[in-house]
Write a structure and sequence with these properties.
About 50% of the residues lie in helices and about 15% in strands. It is an alpha+beta fold and about 475 residues long. Strands 2-1-10-11-7-6 form a six-stranded mixed β-sheet, with no helix packed on it. A four-stranded mixed β-sheet has the order 5-8-9-12. A two-stranded antiparallel sheet has the order 3-4. A hairpin with a 5-residue loop joins strand 13 and strand 14. Helix 4 runs antiparallel to helix 10. The structure holds iron/sulfur cluster (SF4) and fe (iii) ion. The site of fe (iii) ion (FE) has 5 residues, from loops.
Length: about 475
């Protein structure tokens, strides 16, 4: 297993093509735009070496029996799917942000299940190929980006009916040694600082759309891949190297990129699906549900930091003892722990599949994610309420440090006398960053928009069985 620093070193050996604001990012480890996101993933690596967390973060590979980082493990039991959530919460608490690596973890898990099912139906050998790839990922302790979401063009049209055929990832050439793909993947969390990208179809496809039913994995610096790193709210504050950025160490949300595949070659041993349209629905549903369960783990850890920051601020501002403030803090805790409970329950009631891997309770996973889109907004609203208007009008760190008038900011930004204004301002900046703009939108749309969760909730709600319960009690035939 790699330490955080070994992870950083391994990134330095790659040469991904990344652009941001009209310039090329040459070194993701040090560039101010990407450095905090690298730090967040490095923290996930380091947790496996932390005596307080190693039991959770290290597990045994079912393929090789070797010790591996849990973030490359395929869930083999209900315990595994509970421990996943516990890991995510711990990592959220340590970083206060999205630590990215779990998206690829979920892609590995769903690809494991999907290749097994495809082989069963079509007598192909994708699963064998994928197990070999997985072994490589586990042994090298790699971070894999989950290349799932296509740009999708006109949402009212299917993949094959788009005016521009590249709006969904597709195969443009089949060769003796492999395939050539073209298209793009959007919102790619952690891809600028990943080693590999694992691509799968973004939606269920119909017969006739075989060229779009393609899954594969390649190094992130493969020829023909270009990434455009996305903007985030207040992202230029990262360049200022000041506490105004909020979470200067780890960033306020994971870094996302638009990845363009401009005729990229994939060797056959890295192709895990090609043309099996009827299996795409299964694959994307497993990925979506696996990833949605996470949100009651990572977000609750992140919200622990926010609740802590808000509570700390009340100490600094002298409002801690007000009964309505205490009530609101407890409300934040209630909303947060409710998410954690349903996420854990999704793991506790997960079920085995023929492949040996476990699948999360799909109804609970989607309910967890749907509640994140509500509870997180409410937690953030309460943080704004408690913090006060200063959250929106605070002077910058640069002004605080100005030799001419900085002392006046220090004087007037002080609240309870013995707490320095500098620390109060830092806390306010962290709350500002965690509760606004990009961070909040990610809670809404990350792992799929709310309506996508309701579609799966409808599928697994078992309304007929519930009707029968009522009928039985009422003796209705
Ligand atoms: Fe992982 Fe959560 Fe970030 Fe998704 S939002 S990649 S589950 S930390
Ligand atoms: Fe996310």
């Amino acid at each position: 297993m790699k330490t955080g620093n070994e992870y950083r070193e391994s990134l330095r050996k790659l040469n991904p093509v990344i652009y941001f604001m009209g310039r090329k990012i040459e070194d993701v480890v040090e560039d101010p735009a990407t450095k905090p996101h690298v730090n967040a993933v490095a923290q996930v690596y380091d947790l496996a070496f932390d005596p307080a967390h190693e039991d959770l973060f290290i597990t045994t590979s079912h393929l090789t029996n070797r010790k591996i980082h849990r973030f490359t493990h395929i869930h083999q039991s209900q315990d595994d799917l509970v421990n996943k959530v516990r890991c995510l919460r711990a990592a959220g608490q340590k970083t206060g942000t999205c630590f990215q690596r779990c998206a690829g973890w979920d892609a590995l898990h769903s690809m494991y299940l999907m290749t097994y099912e495809i082989d069963k139906h079509y007598q192909t050998d994708y699963h064998k190929r994928f197990r070999k790839y997985l072994e490589y990922v586990q042994d090298e302790d790699l971070t894999v980006a989950a290349g799932v979401t296509d740009p999708k063009g006109d949402r009212s049209l299917a993949a094959s009916k788009q005016a521009d055929p590249d709006l969904y990832m597709r195969v443009i050439k089949r060769q003796d040694d492999g395939i050539v793909v073209r298209g793009a993947k959007a919102h790619q969390t952690g891809a600028v600082n990943a080693h590999e990208i694992l691509v799968m179809p973004t939606a269920a496809l119909k017969s006739g759309e075989e060229d779009y039913a393609v899954a594969f994995a390649i190094p992130i610096d493969s020829k023909g891949i270009t990434q455009i790193f996305g903007r985030q709210t207040n992202d230029m504050r990262k360049e200022e190297n000041s506490f105004d950025a909020g979470n200067t160490k780890f960033g306020v949300v994971g870094g996302e990129s638009l990845i363009i595949f401009d005729d990229v070659f994939v060797p056959w041993e890295r192709v895990f699906m090609l043309g099996e349209c009827d299996m795409t629905g299964y694959g994307i549903e497993i990925f979506a549900c696996t990833h949605r369960q996470n949100y009651g783990g990572c977000k609750t850890g992140v919200m622990d930091v926010l609740i802590g920051a808000t509570s700390l601020l009340t100490t600094y501002q002298g409002t801690k003892k007000a009964s309505h403030i205490r009530e609101k803090i407890i409300e934040m805790v209630l909303l947060n722990e409710t998410l954690y409970g349903s996420s854990l329950a999704g793991g506790l009631t997960s079920s085995p599949t023929e492949s040996g891997a476990y699948v999360v309770n799909r109804l609970l996973a989607n309910i967890t994610k749907q509640n994140v889109t509500r509870n997180l907004y409410e937690i953030c609203r309460l943080a704004h309420d408690i913090a006060g208007g200063i959250l929106a009008t605070l002077p910058s760190e640069k002004d605080l440090n100005d030799p001419r008038y900085g002392h006046l900011i220090e004087k007037y930004m002080k609240s309870v006398d013995h707490y320095p204004a500098n620390d109060r301002m830092k806390i306010l900046r962290l709350i500002e960053a965690m509760t606004g703009g990009t961070a909040l939108v990610e809670a809404m749309h990350g792992a799929g928009s709310p309506q996508a969760q309701r579609v799966i909730m409808q599928r697994y709600a078992e309304l007929d069985a519930k009707e029968n319960l009522a009928k039985k009690i009422l003796d209705i035939e």
